[in-house]
Amino acid sequence: MMISRRNFLAVAGAAAAAAALTACGGSSSSTSTASSTASSAASEAGSEAASKIAKVALTCDTGTIDDESFNQACWSAVSSYMGDDCQYYIPEADASDEDRETMIRQAVNDGAEVIVCVGYLYGASLAWAAEQYPDIKFIAIDVTQGDIGTDEIPSNCYCITFKEEQAGYLAGYAIAKDGKTKLGFLGGMAVPAVIRYGYGFVQGADAAAQELGQNIDINYFYGGQFYGDANITSRMEGWYSNGTQVVFACGGGIYTSAVEAALKNNGYVIGVDVDQNYIGANGVADGTYAYNPFITSAMKGLSEAVSTSLSDIEAGEWSTIAATNGNFGLEDGDYVGLPTDEDSWNFETFTVEEYEALKQKIASGEIVVDNSSDDATKPTVSEFTNVTYIQ
Questions:
Q1: Alpha carbon of 386 to those of 6, 147, 211: distances in Å?
Q2: 378 CB neighbour count, 10 Å cutoff
Q3: 114-157: per-residue pLDDT in tens?
Q4: What's the pLDDT at 380?
Q5: Most buried among 78, 102, 181, 376, by the most CB within 10 A?
């Protein structure tokens, strides 16, 4: 069965993620190694027997394994599921398709039977790898057939994508309903998943603003990377000092720049991919932060999707998901959303009941959240009635 049969919450536990970072080994590499060929013919569809996976590798397209977001959530799932029988591979900065192919080659040489390729940039590399290693199973996160560039998804690949626009919509609607009128969107690289988060965020804020009869100002910017630095922090300080109240920091470790700037200006942030509230809570506990700047997080079920896929493989169900793209949103279950536990719900007036009602409207199709715009990377402001871009 495909993982759409399961109704999981889009939550990655902070404690599990932290523990998982030490469970297995890691490698940082962009240098070439000897190639390896697959040792046996691919399994005939439907003929698999349930069996234990010997080793899983996770390869990242960019960033760090401890980004407390996208990469870490996927690695948490692999290492929690596999124990010591796993390995991760991190590229050096500005990795190429050849570098990503090298990491896949290394993973095969190191004995991986299943390789989880994390990130849209793996598309072209997967086209090569699927043909080169026909009996290796590839799980591709945030990758579509179009990214791979083949006529069909290769028979030994399973693509997993999410409707991030719905998660972004929930966050934008909630923060505007909570009374915030000066917002910011800080994207990492302008890759499809980040673009969808941003487009949904503006839609949700505009919808809430219309209901409240108020106008929303939004700063919108891509940092071009998935980590924070002095230049991005400086830009964020400019936003906050000029009145921005909340920034949706959407792109792995880039949140660090938003948080640093927020804490200097009594501002707030919205986390991404996983519930990042624990970062703020830990910062307060150890005295690093004067207060917790995380109001909420726009999440998707990364850890759960990876874990479920590995479980399907071990159950002998690979043939039911291979060569398909699971694209998950609220109509399929709680695959995207905001955290609702008491510690992570930091809105002043927006309630859990209002949030659940909004989710149901999206799930039922009463509210349709678009995932594309006239502009390929930024929502066109003319599409909205109560939103103004100020940068």
A1: 38, 34, 10
A2: 19
A3: 999 999 999 999 999 999 999 999 999 999 999 999 999 999 99
A4: 83
A5: 78
Residue 49 binned pLDDT confidence (cut-offs 50, 70, 90): confident
Q: Are strands 157-162 and 182-187 parallel, antiparallel or unpaired?
A: unpaired
**What pTM value is reported for the model?**
0.88
Partners of 218 in beta bridges: 183, 389
